[in-house]
Structure formats: structure tokens, C-alpha cells
Amino acid sequence: MIKNITNVKGIKCWGAHSGIKSMRRDLALIFSEVPAAAAATLTQNKVQAEPIKITRRNLKNNRAQVIVCNAGNANACTGEQGRKGAEAMAQTVAEALKISADDVIVASTGLIGEPFPTEEVVEGIKSTVPKLSNDTKAGSFLANAILTTDTFAKEGFVDFEWEGNTISIGGIAKGSGMIHPNMATMLSFLATDISIDEKLLQKTLKHCVDRSFNMITVDGDTSTNDMVAILANGMAGNKKVTSETDPLFVTFKDKLQEILVHLAKLIVSDGEGASKFIEYKVSKAISENVAMKLVRAISDSTLVKTAMFGRDPNWGRIIAACGNAGISFNYKKANLYLGDANNQVLVLERGTPTTFDKNHMKKLLRESHIKIRLELNTGKQEAVGWGSDLTTDYVMFNSVYTT
């Protein structure tokens, strides 16, 4: 049996249709049976949706018990009407579950600037709370209820044994366009039954997000609503993790990053109009930070994206992007490889162009999974990121998004 977020101890959820979207689920609830440590990374866009403001306020104590999210309306740039709508979401779910409204994480996704349908969402919450379940199908309904332009639901689950206890992490995500996270349109909600210190959970989530969601890009746009949130309810029964030196912490961090990378890759693979999934790897760098900045510079380049769409082995665009990364970069020490997921060809060796078969290269770049690999030869650190190409389909899709 396939496991999902409902296999995390003490977690119930549901995905329902409240009427915002025609014929599709558009309301998601994740509930922990007990109060939980909570953490989140939120968008750094200066224009922030109303639910982001509420969630930021409610998480000052790093505690929460429920996540509520609507799809089909971003509740961004909606003024006082939108603020009241977001507050109503928190208050309604709190009253229905008999918890404090301060323990509610609120999220929204959809079109920016449309009046928020408060009445429909409130009624949807009231009718959804009684349906909360830990059945596997509830997790599937949940994953589908946060989608907008996505073509498929995105779920992940990992677990591991520790001193007689099974520790689980489950999560969902959405995203297809406006994907250029900087957390802090993408959302990801996770739950785990590990017992862990609240502030350590926040630090760990940020670390893992930086190496997963913050290493992907589709179109270079950071949404007004980006959010990754996690509840950790402690119901696995482990001794509470309070230190980064705890061996359990090391394993948990690795597993959390594993599920976040999995969800991040699913978002990229569903990029609007994308025809290729591209992995970018920078290795042999003097520091991880340098490697990460170069990955982002290459993957953010519109010219690199279009070259990959056109199967053009124009390695000069990659080197030029590195030169614009805002860090010291010596291309004369670098090796650059281009190709598909299994076969990369050396096109630049220590700054000197190599002779390669361009027809063979174009054949490799015709594949749906592409890999760009850059060796700096200045150290031992590395970073990996993921992105998509920029296609005519993307332009056409987004040119008529609201009409």
C-alpha cells in the first residue's frame, strides 16, 4: 500500500470542494490530534497575501495544530475584505476543532486581486471538519485540493526506525508556474510525528528548504503566497530532539531533505509548458554557498533555458551566466559538461573549448531529462538544483492566464 501524510501518527486531513473552483477540490485541511511544534518558510516577495500575514503572526511561538488552505483565489492584493476573509478561515476552523485561532496556519493559492469568497470558504470549512480522516484516500484528496494549474498531485512520504519507534514524515506540494522560491505559485505542507524542539525544527526546515525548494526554478517569478509549513506532533514517542549533535537529529534532517527534494523535483517536472527537466550541478567549489549561487545563476538564465529548449549546445551562455552570479568565478579553471541524464560530454576543459560532435550533442539534448555539470576545480564543495526549459507553450499559456 502506498503511504502518504495520513500515515503520520495523529494526523487527519481532507480535501473538499467548496465552490471556488468548478468541479475540483479547492479546500484542504491538515489536523494534528495534539498541539504540535510548527515551522514555516514564507515568501520574501514584498507583496504578501493576507494568509501569509496571519501565518507569520501565529507562528511567533512556533506552535500550531492545523493547516487550512484554499485554492482558486490567492487572497492577495484584496485589502480589508481579504484580511477579514483570511481571519475568518482561521476563526472558523478553530471553532470547529475547539482550538485557539492562534494555532492555525492559513494559506491560499490562485488568482491575485480577485475578491476573496469568504462565505464559500467558511461554509466549506464547516462541512469539511467532520470528514477529517487518517484514511489513505483522505491524503490523496488533500493533495488534489491545493492544485491550481498543476497537471498532477504531488505527494511524498518517508519513515525510519529509531530505538523501537517508527518516525514518519509526509508531505504534499503544489506548483507549476510562478516558480522561483526564495523563502522563503508554490506551497508545501508537511507533518511528522517526531518530538523535536520548536526552534530547532524551524532551523532545520530552513536548512532543508534552502537545499530543495530554493534550488528550483521554472520561470524566475516568486509568488505572493509561497509557503512551506510543517507540524511535528511528537506522537512517535521518541525522546525529544533538542540538539544538532543528537544522532536522531542527523537522520531526521537527512530524511526531511529527502522528501523536500522529492517534492521540489515533482514541481519542476510539472512546470508550465516545460518540455525538459534540467539538473544543474556545480562541484569542486571553494564553498557550498559559491556552488549554490552558481547553480541559481545558470538555472535562472533565460538564455540557458531557451538554449535547452532548442537543443542548442551553446555553452557560452552558461559561462556568461556564471560571470553574472556576483561572486568570483574563473572560467579558465572550470570544466563544463552537457548532455542527458546518463551521458554528459565535456565541452569546456580548464577554460578551453573542446571538439565535440554537435549532432551527437543535439541528440542528447533532445531527451526530456538534461544535465548541466560544472566543475570549478577550486575546492571540494558542491550544490545541485533543478529547473525546466522555457518554451513557446509557456508563453502562450501565461499570455491568456485570466482570459
Automatic annotation (TrEMBL):
<feature type="site" description="Involved in the stabilization of negative charge on the oxyanion by the formation of the oxyanion hole">
    <location>
        <position position="110"/>
    </location>
</feature>
<feature type="site" description="Involved in the stabilization of negative charge on the oxyanion by the formation of the oxyanion hole">
    <location>
        <position position="109"/>
    </location>
</feature>
<dbReference type="GO" id="GO:0006526">
    <property type="term" value="P:L-arginine biosynthetic process"/>
</dbReference>
<keyword id="KW-0808">Transferase</keyword>
<keyword id="KW-0055">Arginine biosynthesis</keyword>
<dbReference type="GO" id="GO:0004042">
    <property type="term" value="F:L-glutamate N-acetyltransferase activity"/>
</dbReference>
<keyword id="KW-0511">Multifunctional enzyme</keyword>
<feature type="binding site">
    <location>
        <position position="403"/>
    </location>
    <ligand>
        <name>substrate</name>
    </ligand>
</feature>
<dbReference type="InterPro" id="IPR002813">
    <property type="entry name" value="Arg_biosynth_ArgJ"/>
</dbReference>
<dbReference type="GO" id="GO:0005737">
    <property type="term" value="C:cytoplasm"/>
</dbReference>
<keyword id="KW-0012">Acyltransferase</keyword>
<dbReference type="GO" id="GO:0006592">
    <property type="term" value="P:ornithine biosynthetic process"/>
</dbReference>
<keyword id="KW-0028">Amino-acid biosynthesis</keyword>
<protein>
    <recommendedName>
        <fullName>Arginine biosynthesis bifunctional protein ArgJ</fullName>
        <ecNumber>2.3.1.35</ecNumber>
        <ecNumber>2.3.1.1</ecNumber>
    </recommendedName>
</protein>
<feature type="active site" description="Nucleophile">
    <location>
        <position position="185"/>
    </location>
</feature>
<feature type="binding site">
    <location>
        <position position="272"/>
    </location>
    <ligand>
        <name>substrate</name>
    </ligand>
</feature>
<feature type="binding site">
    <location>
        <position position="174"/>
    </location>
    <ligand>
        <name>substrate</name>
    </ligand>
</feature>
<dbReference type="InterPro" id="IPR016117">
    <property type="entry name" value="ArgJ-like_dom_sf"/>
</dbReference>
<comment type="pathway">
    <text>Amino-acid biosynthesis; L-arginine biosynthesis; L-ornithine and N-acetyl-L-glutamate from L-glutamate and N(2)-acetyl-L-ornithine (cyclic): step 1/1.</text>
</comment>
<comment type="similarity">
    <text>Belongs to the ArgJ family.</text>
</comment>
<comment type="pathway">
    <text>Amino-acid biosynthesis; L-arginine biosynthesis; N(2)-acetyl-L-ornithine from L-glutamate: step 1/4.</text>
</comment>
<feature type="binding site">
    <location>
        <position position="185"/>
    </location>
    <ligand>
        <name>substrate</name>
    </ligand>
</feature>
<comment type="function">
    <text>Catalyzes two activities which are involved in the cyclic version of arginine biosynthesis: the synthesis of N-acetylglutamate from glutamate and acetyl-CoA as the acetyl donor, and of ornithine by transacetylation between N(2)-acetylornithine and glutamate.</text>
</comment>
<feature type="binding site">
    <location>
        <position position="148"/>
    </location>
    <ligand>
        <name>substrate</name>
    </ligand>
</feature>
<comment type="subunit">
    <text>Heterotetramer of two alpha and two beta chains.</text>
</comment>
<dbReference type="Pfam" id="PF01960">
    <property type="entry name" value="ArgJ"/>
</dbReference>
<keyword id="KW-0068">Autocatalytic cleavage</keyword>
<dbReference type="InterPro" id="IPR042195">
    <property type="entry name" value="ArgJ_beta_C"/>
</dbReference>
<feature type="binding site">
    <location>
        <position position="398"/>
    </location>
    <ligand>
        <name>substrate</name>
    </ligand>
</feature>
<dbReference type="GO" id="GO:0004358">
    <property type="term" value="F:L-glutamate N-acetyltransferase activity, acting on acetyl-L-ornithine as donor"/>
</dbReference>
<keyword id="KW-0963">Cytoplasm</keyword>
<feature type="site" description="Cleavage; by autolysis">
    <location>
        <begin position="184"/>
        <end position="185"/>
    </location>
</feature>
